[in-house]
Write a structure and sequence with these properties.
By secondary structure, the protein is mainly alpha-helical. It has a domain of about 100 residues: Winged helix-like DNA-binding domain superfamily/Winged helix DNA-binding domain (Arc Repressor Mutant, subunit A, Orthogonal Bundle), CATH 1.10.10. The protein contains 7 helices and 3 strands. Strands 1-3-2 form a 3-stranded antiparallel sheet. β2 and β3 form a beta hairpin.
């Protein structure tokens, strides 16, 4: 069980003018969100691996390709839709190609770019895996929320997502890294 603790008085007083500390309610919401953030991907991943022999990321790659009319996306677009780096996507694509779920080929319009295409075998895999995944997501999340809470979740998630790509105010502060070096060091 997660315990919510208050910030010590001396911690808040040292930076009273520069830091707007989280309220008790904000801190409780943040801790609950962070707990969910860390636990949910692993829960989804282990369930998909056990039931469908796919990681959550592999599932998302196949799902995003299956939603395209021609089952094809540029690698950069696919990385963006799956919130992954091109490097991560490239490694996953090797495994999915080996399984016969996808192919990669040069873009006919721009030979510098690669496209990913879902094969018939890959389409069959996502069609078979989707009900398992959706039922799990429903049992973890949506079966426990009202329609109003689903709308709120959607609104909150989109608001947070928009801020994730925005530069942080005060970025490059004086936080110390794991090795006692400042995180704003150009070498980090």
């Amino acid at each position: 069980m997660i315990q919510i603790v208050e910030y010590p008085e001396n911690m808040a007083s040292h930076t009273q003018d520069t830091i707007q500390w989280l309220t008790t309610e904000e801190n409780a919401a943040w801790v609950a969100f962070a707990d969910m953030f860390f636990r949910l991907p692993g829960t989804l991943d282990s369930h998909l691996q056990r039931e469908c022999d796919l990681t959550f990321y592999e599932y998302m790659v196949l799902a995003m390709l299956s939603e395209q009319d021609d089952r094809t996306l540029g690698m950069g677009d696919l990385a963006g839709l799956t919130s992954g780096s091109l490097s991560r996507l490239s490694h996953v694509m090797k495994r999915l190609e080996k399984a016969g779920f996808v192919t990669r080929q040069r873009d006919t319009a721009d030979k510098r770019h690669m496209n990913a295409t879902l094969t018939e075998t890959g389409y069959d895999k996502i069609v078979a895996s989707a009900p398992v995944h959706v039922n799990h997501v429903r049992s973890l999340i949506f079966d426990h929320l009202s329609a109003e809470q689903v709308t709120q979740l959607h609104t909150i998630a989109n608001t947070v997502r928009e801020n994730l790509s925005a530069p942080s105010p005060g970025a490059g502060g004086d936080c110390q890294g794991l090795h006692g070096t400042s995180t704003d060091s150009p070498d980090q």
